[in-house]
Amino acid sequence: MRVLLTGAAGFIGSRVAVALADADHDVVALDAMLAAAHGPDAELPADVRRVDVRDAATLAPLLEGVDVVCHQAAVVGAGVDAADAPSYSSHNDFATAVLLAEMFAAGCRRLVLASSMVVYGQGRYECPQHGLVDPLPRSRTDLDAGVFEHRCPICGQPVSWRLVDEDAPLRPRSLYAASKTAQEHYALAWADSTGGSVVALRYHNVYGPGMPRDTPYSGVAAIFRSELEAGDVPRVFEDGGQMRDFVHVDDVAAANLAAATADIDGFTAVNVCSGRPISILEVASALSDARAGAPSPVITGQYRSGDVRHIVADPARAEQVLGFRAAVDPREGLREFAFAPLR
Questions:
Q1: Based on C-alpha coordinates, what's the Rg of the chain?
Q2: Which helix (H) or strand (E) holds 127?
Q3: Fewest 10 Å CB contacts: which of 92, 157, 172, 270?
Protein backbone atom coordinates (compact mmCIF):
# COMPACT_ATOMS: atom_id res chain seq x y z
CA MET A 1 0.00 0.00 0.00
CA ARG A 2 1.27 3.48 -0.86
CA VAL A 3 0.81 5.99 1.98
CA LEU A 4 1.37 9.73 1.86
CA LEU A 5 2.41 10.89 5.34
CA THR A 6 2.44 14.58 6.27
CA GLY A 7 4.34 15.86 9.30
CA ALA A 8 6.68 12.92 8.81
CA ALA A 9 9.67 14.48 10.56
CA GLY A 10 7.74 15.34 13.71
CA PHE A 11 7.57 13.60 17.07
CA ILE A 12 4.54 11.48 16.17
CA GLY A 13 4.94 11.47 12.40
CA SER A 14 8.43 10.01 12.50
CA ARG A 15 7.19 7.04 14.58
CA VAL A 16 4.22 6.57 12.28
CA ALA A 17 6.63 6.45 9.33
CA VAL A 18 8.61 3.66 11.01
CA ALA A 19 5.45 1.67 11.80
CA LEU A 20 4.22 1.94 8.20
CA ALA A 21 7.61 1.00 6.74
CA ASP A 22 7.96 -1.95 9.13
CA ALA A 23 4.61 -3.19 7.83
CA ASP A 24 6.06 -3.06 4.28
CA HIS A 25 4.04 -0.06 3.13
CA ASP A 26 5.52 2.42 0.66
CA VAL A 27 5.70 5.76 2.47
CA VAL A 28 5.81 9.17 0.75
CA ALA A 29 7.04 11.31 3.64
CA LEU A 30 6.47 15.09 3.73
CA ASP A 31 7.17 17.83 6.26
CA ALA A 32 7.23 21.65 6.11
CA MET A 33 9.96 21.70 8.82
CA LEU A 34 8.46 24.65 10.68
CA ALA A 35 10.99 26.20 13.06
CA ALA A 36 8.44 26.23 15.91
CA ALA A 37 8.25 22.44 15.76
CA HIS A 38 11.79 21.46 14.79
CA GLY A 39 13.97 24.38 15.86
CA PRO A 40 15.62 26.95 13.57
CA ASP A 41 18.55 24.75 12.56
CA ALA A 42 16.88 21.37 12.11
CA GLU A 43 18.05 19.30 9.17
CA LEU A 44 15.59 17.65 6.83
CA PRO A 45 15.75 13.85 7.28
CA ALA A 46 17.05 12.08 4.21
CA ASP A 47 13.82 10.19 3.58
CA VAL A 48 11.51 13.21 3.99
CA ARG A 49 10.62 15.82 1.36
CA ARG A 50 10.25 19.45 2.42
CA VAL A 51 6.68 20.20 1.35
CA ASP A 52 4.12 22.62 2.74
CA VAL A 53 0.71 20.95 2.41
CA ARG A 54 -0.80 24.32 1.51
CA ASP A 55 1.19 24.26 -1.75
CA ALA A 56 -1.27 22.47 -4.02
CA ALA A 57 1.01 22.52 -7.07
CA THR A 58 3.78 20.67 -5.24
CA LEU A 59 1.41 18.36 -3.40
CA ALA A 60 -0.63 17.19 -6.39
CA PRO A 61 1.95 15.01 -8.19
CA LEU A 62 2.95 13.36 -4.90
CA LEU A 63 -0.60 12.00 -4.52
CA GLU A 64 -0.43 9.97 -7.72
CA GLY A 65 -0.90 6.28 -6.91
CA VAL A 66 -1.44 6.96 -3.20
CA ASP A 67 -3.93 4.62 -1.50
CA VAL A 68 -4.28 6.43 1.82
CA VAL A 69 -3.14 9.74 3.32
CA CYS A 70 -1.99 9.90 6.93
CA HIS A 71 -2.23 13.59 7.87
CA GLN A 72 -0.14 14.40 10.94
CA ALA A 73 1.03 17.91 10.04
CA ALA A 74 -0.34 20.70 12.25
CA VAL A 75 0.61 23.69 14.32
CA VAL A 76 -0.06 22.88 17.98
CA GLY A 77 0.14 24.71 21.31
CA ALA A 78 -2.09 26.29 23.91
CA GLY A 79 -3.76 28.54 21.37
CA VAL A 80 -4.81 31.29 23.77
CA ASP A 81 -3.34 34.32 21.97
CA ALA A 82 -5.80 35.79 19.49
CA ALA A 83 -2.90 36.93 17.31
CA ASP A 84 -2.11 33.27 16.56
CA ALA A 85 -5.51 32.58 14.96
CA PRO A 86 -4.33 33.12 11.35
CA SER A 87 -1.46 30.67 11.85
CA TYR A 88 -3.73 27.92 13.20
CA SER A 89 -6.28 28.55 10.48
CA SER A 90 -3.70 28.53 7.71
CA HIS A 91 -1.49 25.60 8.72
CA ASN A 92 -4.25 23.38 10.11
CA ASP A 93 -7.55 24.21 8.42
CA PHE A 94 -6.56 25.64 5.05
CA ALA A 95 -3.84 23.01 4.63
CA THR A 96 -6.40 20.26 5.30
CA ALA A 97 -8.81 21.80 2.79
CA VAL A 98 -6.06 21.86 0.14
CA LEU A 99 -5.12 18.27 0.94
CA LEU A 100 -8.71 17.06 0.64
CA ALA A 101 -9.18 18.84 -2.68
CA GLU A 102 -6.00 17.34 -4.12
CA MET A 103 -6.89 13.89 -2.78
CA PHE A 104 -10.19 14.08 -4.63
CA ALA A 105 -8.45 15.17 -7.84
CA ALA A 106 -5.97 12.28 -7.53
CA GLY A 107 -8.70 9.70 -6.85
CA CYS A 108 -7.50 8.99 -3.30
CA ARG A 109 -10.49 8.44 -1.02
CA ARG A 110 -8.95 7.33 2.29
CA LEU A 111 -7.70 9.65 5.03
CA VAL A 112 -6.31 9.08 8.52
CA LEU A 113 -6.51 12.43 10.31
CA ALA A 114 -4.53 13.30 13.44
CA SER A 115 -7.07 14.99 15.69
CA SER A 116 -6.93 15.68 19.41
CA MET A 117 -8.71 15.38 22.72
CA VAL A 118 -8.90 19.18 22.78
CA VAL A 119 -12.01 19.03 20.59
CA TYR A 120 -13.95 17.88 23.69
CA GLY A 121 -13.26 21.08 25.59
CA GLN A 122 -13.61 20.59 29.35
CA GLY A 123 -14.29 16.86 29.26
CA ARG A 124 -17.24 15.06 30.85
CA TYR A 125 -18.66 15.50 34.36
CA GLU A 126 -21.43 14.11 36.52
CA CYS A 127 -23.30 15.66 39.43
CA PRO A 128 -24.54 13.23 42.12
CA GLN A 129 -27.92 14.94 42.02
CA HIS A 130 -28.35 16.06 38.41
CA GLY A 131 -26.44 13.45 36.44
CA LEU A 132 -24.28 14.40 33.46
CA VAL A 133 -23.83 18.15 33.28
CA ASP A 134 -21.78 20.67 31.32
CA PRO A 135 -20.22 22.80 34.05
CA LEU A 136 -19.42 26.44 33.59
CA PRO A 137 -15.74 27.36 33.21
CA ARG A 138 -13.99 27.57 36.57
CA SER A 139 -14.11 31.04 38.09
CA ARG A 140 -10.98 32.96 38.98
CA THR A 141 -12.39 33.40 42.47
CA ASP A 142 -12.54 29.62 42.99
CA LEU A 143 -9.11 29.09 41.47
CA ASP A 144 -7.53 31.80 43.64
CA ALA A 145 -9.10 30.10 46.66
CA GLY A 146 -7.66 26.71 45.70
CA VAL A 147 -11.05 25.30 44.65
CA PHE A 148 -10.09 23.50 41.46
CA GLU A 149 -12.98 21.12 40.82
CA HIS A 150 -15.82 22.11 38.54
CA ARG A 151 -19.21 22.80 40.05
CA CYS A 152 -22.64 21.69 38.91
CA PRO A 153 -24.27 24.56 36.97
CA ILE A 154 -27.60 23.74 38.65
CA CYS A 155 -26.82 23.16 42.34
CA GLY A 156 -23.25 24.45 42.60
CA GLN A 157 -21.88 21.27 44.17
CA PRO A 158 -18.59 19.70 43.00
CA VAL A 159 -18.89 17.25 40.10
CA SER A 160 -16.87 14.13 39.24
CA TRP A 161 -15.09 13.35 35.98
CA ARG A 162 -16.32 10.61 33.68
CA LEU A 163 -14.84 8.96 30.58
CA VAL A 164 -15.29 10.93 27.38
CA ASP A 165 -16.50 8.88 24.44
CA GLU A 166 -16.48 9.91 20.79
CA ASP A 167 -20.15 10.91 20.79
CA ALA A 168 -19.52 13.69 23.30
CA PRO A 169 -20.27 17.19 22.00
CA LEU A 170 -17.34 19.06 20.46
CA ARG A 171 -16.77 22.25 22.45
CA PRO A 172 -13.36 23.70 21.51
CA ARG A 173 -12.09 26.24 24.04
CA SER A 174 -8.84 27.37 22.40
CA LEU A 175 -7.70 28.41 18.95
CA TYR A 176 -5.85 25.13 18.54
CA ALA A 177 -8.94 23.19 19.56
CA ALA A 178 -11.06 25.21 17.14
CA SER A 179 -8.65 24.40 14.31
CA LYS A 180 -8.67 20.66 15.09
CA THR A 181 -12.48 20.70 15.21
CA ALA A 182 -12.54 22.48 11.86
CA GLN A 183 -10.21 19.85 10.40
CA GLU A 184 -12.65 17.13 11.47
CA HIS A 185 -15.59 19.03 10.02
CA TYR A 186 -13.85 19.52 6.65
CA ALA A 187 -12.98 15.82 6.60
CA LEU A 188 -16.53 14.80 7.52
CA ALA A 189 -18.02 16.97 4.75
CA TRP A 190 -15.44 15.61 2.28
CA ALA A 191 -16.28 12.01 3.18
CA ASP A 192 -20.00 12.65 2.76
CA SER A 193 -19.61 14.39 -0.59
CA THR A 194 -17.05 12.04 -2.14
CA GLY A 195 -17.90 8.69 -0.57
CA GLY A 196 -14.49 8.74 1.01
CA SER A 197 -13.29 7.17 4.24
CA VAL A 198 -11.93 9.18 7.18
CA VAL A 199 -10.66 7.92 10.51
CA ALA A 200 -10.07 10.86 12.86
CA LEU A 201 -7.71 9.78 15.62
CA ARG A 202 -8.27 11.91 18.71
CA TYR A 203 -4.91 11.73 20.44
CA HIS A 204 -4.79 12.16 24.19
CA ASN A 205 -1.57 13.10 26.03
CA VAL A 206 1.18 11.64 23.86
CA TYR A 207 4.66 11.10 25.32
CA GLY A 208 7.76 9.07 24.50
CA PRO A 209 11.28 9.15 23.05
CA GLY A 210 11.94 12.04 20.69
CA MET A 211 9.40 14.30 22.36
CA PRO A 212 10.19 17.99 21.78
CA ARG A 213 11.93 19.81 24.60
CA ASP A 214 11.08 23.38 25.68
CA THR A 215 8.87 24.31 22.71
CA PRO A 216 5.12 24.94 22.30
CA TYR A 217 5.03 21.31 21.17
CA SER A 218 6.35 20.06 24.53
CA GLY A 219 3.89 18.25 26.76
CA VAL A 220 3.82 18.42 30.53
CA ALA A 221 5.80 15.16 30.79
CA ALA A 222 8.66 16.71 28.79
CA ILE A 223 8.50 19.85 30.93
CA PHE A 224 8.86 17.79 34.11
CA ARG A 225 11.74 15.90 32.45
CA SER A 226 13.53 19.15 31.64
CA GLU A 227 13.13 20.40 35.20
CA LEU A 228 14.59 17.19 36.62
CA GLU A 229 17.52 17.18 34.20
CA ALA A 230 18.33 20.74 35.23
CA GLY A 231 18.47 19.62 38.86
CA ASP A 232 15.26 21.51 39.52
CA VAL A 233 12.04 20.43 41.20
CA PRO A 234 9.05 19.43 39.04
CA ARG A 235 6.40 22.06 39.68
CA VAL A 236 2.85 20.76 39.59
CA PHE A 237 0.05 23.26 39.06
CA GLU A 238 -3.23 23.32 40.98
CA ASP A 239 -3.31 20.42 43.47
CA GLY A 240 -1.93 17.82 41.06
CA GLY A 241 -5.24 15.99 40.93
CA GLN A 242 -5.92 16.79 37.28
CA MET A 243 -6.73 13.50 35.55
CA ARG A 244 -5.48 12.70 32.07
CA ASP A 245 -4.81 9.77 29.77
CA PHE A 246 -1.14 9.49 28.77
CA VAL A 247 -0.52 7.35 25.70
CA HIS A 248 2.90 6.25 24.44
CA VAL A 249 3.95 7.45 21.00
CA ASP A 250 4.52 3.85 19.84
CA ASP A 251 0.89 3.09 20.68
CA VAL A 252 -0.14 6.15 18.70
CA ALA A 253 1.88 4.86 15.74
CA ALA A 254 0.17 1.47 16.08
CA ALA A 255 -3.23 3.17 16.04
CA ASN A 256 -2.30 4.97 12.82
CA LEU A 257 -1.24 1.71 11.22
CA ALA A 258 -4.52 0.09 12.26
CA ALA A 259 -6.52 3.03 10.89
CA ALA A 260 -4.59 3.11 7.61
CA THR A 261 -5.38 -0.55 6.94
CA ALA A 262 -8.95 -0.59 8.31
CA ASP A 263 -11.91 -1.14 6.00
CA ILE A 264 -14.21 1.60 7.27
CA ASP A 265 -16.69 3.69 5.28
CA GLY A 266 -17.57 7.31 5.94
CA PHE A 267 -16.29 9.34 8.89
CA THR A 268 -15.28 7.69 12.16
CA ALA A 269 -13.74 9.41 15.17
CA VAL A 270 -11.69 7.31 17.58
CA ASN A 271 -9.99 8.10 20.90
CA VAL A 272 -6.34 7.12 20.95
CA CYS A 273 -5.52 6.62 24.61
CA SER A 274 -4.05 4.18 27.08
CA GLY A 275 -7.34 3.54 28.89
CA ARG A 276 -5.46 3.93 32.18
CA PRO A 277 -6.19 7.33 33.81
CA ILE A 278 -3.39 9.01 35.72
CA SER A 279 -3.10 12.29 37.63
CA ILE A 280 -0.60 15.01 36.78
CA LEU A 281 0.98 14.54 40.21
CA GLU A 282 1.41 10.82 39.47
CA VAL A 283 3.12 11.73 36.18
CA ALA A 284 5.60 14.00 37.93
CA SER A 285 6.15 11.46 40.71
CA ALA A 286 6.79 8.60 38.27
CA LEU A 287 9.50 10.65 36.56
CA SER A 288 11.06 11.74 39.85
CA ASP A 289 11.00 8.26 41.36
CA ALA A 290 12.72 6.80 38.30
CA ARG A 291 15.72 9.12 38.68
CA ALA A 292 17.71 8.19 41.78
CA GLY A 293 18.20 11.15 44.07
CA ALA A 294 15.83 13.38 42.12
CA PRO A 295 13.66 15.76 44.15
CA SER A 296 10.00 14.99 44.65
CA PRO A 297 7.44 17.15 42.86
CA VAL A 298 6.18 20.31 44.51
CA ILE A 299 2.51 21.25 44.32
CA THR A 300 2.44 24.99 43.69
CA GLY A 301 -1.28 25.75 43.75
CA GLN A 302 -0.68 27.97 40.73
CA TYR A 303 -3.00 27.68 37.76
CA ARG A 304 -3.35 28.78 34.18
CA SER A 305 -6.63 30.30 33.07
CA GLY A 306 -8.28 28.08 30.49
CA ASP A 307 -6.62 24.85 31.60
CA VAL A 308 -8.88 21.81 31.59
CA ARG A 309 -9.36 20.18 35.00
CA HIS A 310 -10.00 16.58 33.92
CA ILE A 311 -10.26 14.90 30.54
CA VAL A 312 -10.05 11.11 30.39
CA ALA A 313 -10.90 9.01 27.35
CA ASP A 314 -13.05 5.97 26.74
CA PRO A 315 -10.93 3.48 24.73
CA ALA A 316 -13.80 1.15 23.76
CA ARG A 317 -14.44 2.33 20.19
CA ALA A 318 -10.77 2.06 19.17
CA GLU A 319 -10.78 -1.60 20.11
CA GLN A 320 -14.17 -2.20 18.51
CA VAL A 321 -13.55 -0.60 15.11
CA LEU A 322 -9.74 -0.77 14.77
CA GLY A 323 -8.82 -3.69 16.97
CA PHE A 324 -6.46 -1.27 18.73
CA ARG A 325 -5.59 -1.46 22.40
CA ALA A 326 -2.65 0.44 23.86
CA ALA A 327 0.16 -1.83 24.99
CA VAL A 328 2.06 0.54 27.27
CA ASP A 329 0.79 1.30 30.77
CA PRO A 330 1.70 4.95 31.46
CA ARG A 331 3.02 4.13 34.90
CA GLU A 332 5.62 1.89 33.25
CA GLY A 333 6.13 4.00 30.15
CA LEU A 334 6.75 7.17 32.13
CA ARG A 335 9.50 5.49 34.16
CA GLU A 336 11.25 4.62 30.90
CA PHE A 337 10.56 8.11 29.57
CA ALA A 338 12.53 9.51 32.50
CA PHE A 339 15.71 8.60 30.58
CA ALA A 340 14.50 8.65 26.98
CA PRO A 341 16.17 11.05 24.54
CA LEU A 342 14.30 14.29 23.86
CA ARG A 343 14.48 16.38 20.74
A1: 20
A2: strand 124-127
A3: 157
DSSP letter string over 282-325?
A: HHHHHHHHHSTTPPPPEE-----TT--S--EE--HHIIIII---
The DSSP code sequence of 4-62 is EEESTTSHHHHHHHHHHHHTT-EEEEEE---HHHH-TTPPPPTT-EE--TT-HHHHHHH
C-alpha span between 168 and 221 (Å, rounded): 26
Instruction: Indicate if the alpha-carbon torsion angle 123, 125, 131, 135 is positive or negative.
Output: negative
Q: How many residues does the chain have?
A: 343
Overall pTM > 0.85: yes
CA-closest candidate to residue 332, choices 226, 248, 249: 248
**Any bridge partners for residue 161, and if so which?**
125
Task: Please report, in tens digits, the pLDDT of each residue of the chain (343 residues total).
Answer: 999 999 999 999 999 999 999 999 999 999 999 987 787 778 899 999 999 999 999 999 999 999 999 999 999 876 667 888 999 999 999 999 999 999 999 999 999 999 999 999 999 999 999 999 999 889 999 999 999 999 999 999 999 999 999 999 999 989 999 999 999 999 999 999 999 999 999 999 999 999 987 665 568 999 999 899 889 999 999 999 999 999 999 999 999 999 999 999 999 999 999 999 999 999 999 999 999 889 999 999 999 877 899 999 999 999 999 999 999 999 999 999 999 888 7
- Beta bridge partners of residue 272, listed in sequence order: 203
